Amino acid sequence: MLCSTVNPLIVRLICKKGVATDETLVDLFGQWLKAFAVAQGAMSEDFAHEAVAELEMRIAATPAEGLRGLAVKLGLYQFLSDHGDVASLQCDSAYSDLVRLTGTDPVRISPWF
Predict the structure, then answer these.
(1) SS3 assignment, position 4
(2) How many structural domains is the chain composed of?
(3) Is 95 within the bounds of a domain?
(4) How far is residue 15 CA from its own chain's centroid?
(5) Does residue 111 lie in a domain region?
(6) 11, 46, 49, 75 — which has fewest CB within 10 A?
């Protein structure tokens, strides 16, 4: 694990940043769950659906810095997998974060693409 194999001063800088960003994603996901429940209600208004869409965009725009953040993004993708474009946005965002965190883009190095 990165946080246990690097100089302790660097660990505090890198890991705290990642935890804070991933905690933001966890918080946004909690907000999304509440907004989604309201939007599914029989009396929901357009603003409830707009709130859900806004939170989905904020989750996609917030970079994951660790596995917990990636789990939020891919978990939301799994949940939305039957809903087209929004699911694709979450998956694309999570994939970009994985490429950034690992430094590897399998699609770019594949001879088929």
Answers:
(1) helix
(2) 1
(3) yes
(4) 17
(5) no
(6) 46
* Residue range 38-83, pLDDT digits in tens: 888 877 788 888 999 999 999 999 998 888 888 888 878 877 776 6
- Is pTM, for the whole model, over 0.70? no
Nearest to 51 by CA among 32, 66, 70: 32
What distance in Å separates the CA atoms of residue 110 and residue 87, rounded to the nearest whole number? 24
Q: Which of 60, 57, 69, 55 is nearest to 25 (CA)?
A: 69
Q: Which domain holds residue 30?
A: 2-103
Contact 82, 51 (CB under 8 A): no
Among the listed residues 96, 90, 53, 97, the one whose alpha carbon sits nearest the alpha carbon of residue 74? 90
